[in-house]
Amino acid sequence: MESMNKEVLFSREIIDRRVRELAEEISGDYAGGEPIVVGVLKGAFIFMADLIRSLRIPCKVDFMQLASYGSGTVSSGEVVIKKDMGLPIAGKDVLIVEDIVDTGLTLSFLVKALQDRAPRSLKVCVFLDKKMRRKIPFAADYTGFTIDDGFVVGYGLDFNEQARFLSDVYIIKA
Ligand code: XMP
Ligand code: MG
Question: Candidates 47, 97, 99: which one to mutate for ligand 1, based on the most atoms within 8 Å of Cβ?
Answer without folding.
Answer: 99
